[in-house]
Amino acid sequence: MITTMKRRRGRGENEKDAKKQKLLNELGQSQLPYLTPKDDGFHQLWKTKYSKLVLRNAETIPQDVHREVQEAFGLLQKHACLFQDLVRIKGKDFVTPVSRILIGNPGYTYKYLNTRLFTVPWPVEGYEINYSHPEISKACEALIKLNEHLRRETVLALQEQNLSETKGTEDSVVTEKLQEEAAPVTESGCASPDQSAAHVPKNDCADLKERTSYNLTLLNYMDPQRMPFLKQEPYFGMGKMAVSWHHDENLVERSTVAVYSSCREEPDSHEKEAWCGRDPAVWHVALKVAWDIKTPGLAVPLYQGDCYLMLDDMNMTHQHCVLAGHQPRFSSTHRVAECSQGTLPYILGRCNAALENLHGDAALGCLALKSLDIGTIKGVEEIHNEVEFEWLRQFWFQGKRYQKCTDWWDQPMAVLEEHWRKMELMRRKPNQCFIRGPDEGKHAEGKGPHRLMTE
Ligand SMILES: O=C(O)CCC(=O)C(=O)O
Prior knowledge:
12 helices; binds 2-oxoglutaric acid; 17 strands; nucleus; 36% helix; five-stranded mixed beta sheet; globular; Methane Monooxygenase Hydroxylase, Chain G, domain 1
């Protein structure tokens, strides 16, 4: 049951609400201005207030990457691998209009809006992965290839931006480069990457690597024709949104988010100039400066195969939303998820630490606690909750969706459940010899958390 996963709202969320309310009060009935490419000042606004948004339009991306990624989207859809998520916003449950699948490093998870998604692993050396169909394997391979392409593009883009921060230098080569950089962003918003790293000031390599090594991608799909009740964008009057205003959560600080966008083009219509503002037939990414009503918003159209990068701290300083067009669209959003508490090795390590307090041998029919120290018992209780609420319930609540793609999580989840069961016994009867035999022990206290949830 969903109610078993209830969580109190944090102070941060209440503060956010207060800020949002203040903003809406200031705004009253009026709407804020925003610019699109057909507005004067669009490129200037981009360059001055949204400079960490970089668009790489489709022509700059290798054809084989386009072909394989677009085929991958089709294959994942054919095998019904994408699902709408049940998320919690301000204590209420919502089903996302977009359908999603998380693909990434084996054993990684990503939590957004209180829902933890588990990666369908992409192929990495050292891991044996059984996919439920060769076409799913092919799709995952295409996405790790895209991931690598976007990582390289991101490093280049970051290097370019570091160059522009060295303004005022005497170095003539750098000055020359600066003049190039200072030129207005091109029509496409794509500043041409300088492939020669020779004059690029040194970045802190370790840091750069950490902030650009995407460890997973969250894929989104939506067909707007099947979603008649999309929310209207509330501040600027930008029209229907597929994804509301947000910052991406749980990412490594100052890490880039890279997005590949794919949607069929709308056939040209004569009504093109009939609307003001953004073209409602075309998908856009929209950006605004967080908690700022003075700077106009920016709506950037996205055509088949375009990519955009939100560099460095842009995901923190700005919010973004996705404005729906008319055609179905896929996107692949590559992220450096902050996984210090989100990987399988992490949670197994936690469980093993808790089970250290267990003494004896289940096979011999007797287990007891080594220590009854209150701190130790509390620690076990914490881990017991963590494995139950952050892992097992999250996993089982999402049903059998992962099995559509792979059996990768089945065995680890069985192990976690077994650990949970032992901790449950430790908690219930802390000072008794509480398991009489392996099979009896297994069933004595009865139920795994997934069963509790479905009751
Ligand atoms: O599809 C996109 O362009 C971005 C989607 C997004 O913002 C998200 O998944 O958090």
